[in-house]
Write a structure and sequence with these properties.
Elements: E1 4-7, H1 13-24, E2 28-33, H2 36-45, E3 52-56, H3 62-70, H4 74-77, E4 81-84, H5 100-128, E5 131-135, H6 148-167, E6 174-180, H7 186-191, H8 196-203, H9 211-223, E7 232-235
Parallel strand pairs: 1-2, 1-4, 2-3, 4-5, 5-6, 6-7
Helix pairs in contact: 1-9, 3-5, 5-6
């Protein structure tokens, strides 16, 4: 019998590529997202309702998440793998210029939504001796100008992953934080408010990570023996590295 994965934020970018990769390896998948037409198209692409099941809801809405999970048919209810991919960044300016509403949206999506669906599925994952994969970011460890709240949310995701590992000791549940660097996806268009020119400038000549690279990493983690846990993986394109600390000088 095929194992079951649930992938949040599956309508584009990392989530879509992860779902495609898992189905290609024989998994059946539950897909979550806010855009029903994209979910339905992805279900069709992945082989129809025998291989994929869509749940259309906003990850920030706890009651919607609860109701959606209750609607899972029996053949998709025994979740073996939770991929917490849903998340976003909004804006890249300094904290003193940022929109507080955008900060709240990032916190509600990247933190509150992630912990909510994780909690709702924990009993099932414990019963299945399953796996939680959380998509964090190198921003969880390395600050940069304009990262402010986005980086803070991803630092939470990384620490929450470690905390889960501690709390689930002896339960057989594996937990991994995957922390990508410069990656090309719709994520950046969302962050820049749809600014295609800014998107193009960011990636020009950089050979950034692609969604398929992250999907391959998730599949590798999920395919390891049950006694092996990867605590965290930090991934960057070869073109990305570190620069000197910034120093502000008066005068």
């Amino acid at each position: 019998m095929s194992k079951i994965a649930i992938v949040t934020g599956a309508t584009s970018g990392f989530g879509k590529a992860i779902a495609q990769r898992l189905v290609a390896e024989g998994w059946n998948v539950v897909l979550t997202g806010r855009r029903k037409e994209r979910l339905d198209a992805l279900v069709a692409e992945l082989g129809g309702p025998d291989r994929a099941f869509p749940l259309c809801f906003d990850i920030r809405d706890e009651q919607a998440a609860r109701s959606a999970l209750v609607e899972l048919p029996e053949r998709f209810a025994a979740i073996d793998l939770l991929v917490n991919n849903a998340g976003l960044a909004l804006g890249n300016g300094p904290a003193q210029d940022c929109d507080l509403a955008q900060w709240r949206t990032m916190i509600d999506t990247n933190i509150t939504g992630l912990v909510t669906i994780t909690r709702l599925l924990l009993e099932t994952l414990i019963a299945r001796r399953g796996l939680v994969v959380n998509l964090a970011s190198i921003a969880s460890s390395w600050p940069y100008p304009g990262g402010n709240v986005y980086a803070g949310t991803k630092a939470f995701v990384r620490q929450f992953s470690l905390g889960l590992r501690s709390d689930l000791s002896g339960k057989g549940v594996r937990v991994t934080s995957i922390e990508p660097g410069l990656s090309e996806s719709e994520f950046t268009l969302v962050r820049t408010g749809g600014d295609q020119a800014a998107y193009d400038r960011l990636y020009a000549g950089a050979h950034p990570l692609q969604p398929e690279d992250i999907a391959e990493t998730v599949h590798w983690v999920a395919s390891l023996p049950a006694h092996v846990n990867i605590n965290s993986i930090e991934i960057m394109p070869v073109s990305q590295s570190w620069a000197p600390f910034q120093i502000y000088r008066e005068g």
